[in-house]
Write a structure and sequence with these properties.
By secondary structure, the chain is α+β, with helices and mostly antiparallel strands. It has two domains: 70 residues, Winged helix-like DNA-binding domain superfamily/Winged helix DNA-binding domain (Arc Repressor Mutant, subunit A, Orthogonal Bundle); 121 residues, Arc Repressor Mutant, subunit A, CATH 1.10.10. 46% of the residues lie in helices and 12% in strands. The chain has nine helices and seven strands. The strands form two sheets. The chain has a four-stranded antiparallel β-sheet with strand order 4-6-5-7. Helix 1 packs across helix 3 and helix 4 crosses helix 6. It is globular. The protein starts with a helix and ends in a 12-residue tail after the last helix. This is Segregation and condensation protein B. It holds the Pfam family SMC_ScpB. InterPro entries: ScpB_csome_segregation, WH-like_DNA-bd_sf, WH_DNA-bd_sf.
């Protein structure tokens, strides 16, 4: 039996329209699911930002990103959350800043002159203290002997004690060399005080010259040391142990700080 050509064409057009309609419905359904997923992700991100904001606000000291991540919804990228939150605060009176691997709220740089802390007396470092502080910052991990080699003079224990008490310098570990000398490095408090995100933000050659901190007569071959990218122990360092601290007189045998 032969079908009428016109009827055959009509049925073909009908099937084509049905298939097109099905494709449109599938596309719409897929778009709806995608939109719902995007909305859900957006909600999770906003909620994560609120949590992170609360954690940083409530912390008296810079809070590590790892500690923030533990409180965020599972699967949320803490770095993305903090960067977005930092951008949100960029034009406000307080800024969210990164301090090493931690985060903190700080007064916007252009408004810091309005904030006074008359009740806090800041201990000024001596010239020797400043020199040792700079050497440790740029050369860490560095031993006392290496500090003296750079300065060309002996470094008193008192100078290192002042820097340790300031909270800007810490004992990193012990060098795997004869005598196992203690190595020194900076702390997150050092970065926070000087407004640095990481050690690589320390002033370079041109910045130091511009600030008048380098003599114009320095050798042309002189190079400012490149600070390390992080606080990880070097290959030739071992971590400081409680026994080390006891030997150095920084802890009593019971593990309490020796006043």
């Amino acid at each position: 039996m032969t079908m009428d050509p016109a009827r055959a064409q009509s049925m073909s057009d009908h099937h084509a329209k049905s298939d097109e309609h099905a494709d449109l419905e599938g596309a719409a359904m897929g778009k709806g699911e995608s939109g719902a997923m995007e909305a859900l992700n957006e909600h999770r991100l906003r909620e994560a930002e609120r949590i992170a904001e609360a954690l940083v606000f409530a912390s008296a000291t810079p809070i590590p990103g790892k500690a923030i991540a533990e409180k965020l919804p599972q699967g949320v990228d803490v770095s993305a959350v903090m960067e977005q939150l930092s951008r949100s605060y960029a034009q406000r009176g307080v800024n969210l800043v990164r301090v090493g691997d931690a985060w903190a709220f700080r007064t916007a740089a252009d408004l810091s002159f309005l904030i006074r802390k008359d009740e806090t007396e800041v201990r000024k470092l001596s010239r020797a203290g400043l020199e040792v502080m700079a050497i440790i910052a740029y050369h860490q991990p560095v031993t006392r002997a290496e500090i003296e080699d750079v300065r060309g003079v002996a470094t008193s224990r008192g100078t290192l004690d002042v820097l340790l008490e300031s909270g800007w310098v810490r004992m990193r570990g012990r060098r795997r060399t004869p005598g196992r000398p203690v190595t020194y490095g900076t702390t997150p408090a050092f970065l926070d005080h000087f407004g640095l995100e990481e050690l690589r933000d320390l002033p370079g050659m041109e910045e130091l010259k511009g600030a008048g901190l380098l003599s114009s007569r320095i050798p042309s071959s002189f190079q400012v040391p490149q600070p390390p990218a992080n606080d990880d122990l070097a290959e030739d360092e071992d971590p400081i142990t409680q026994m080390d601290l006891e030997e150095l007189g920084l802890l009593t045998p019971m593990g309490e700080a020796d006043d």
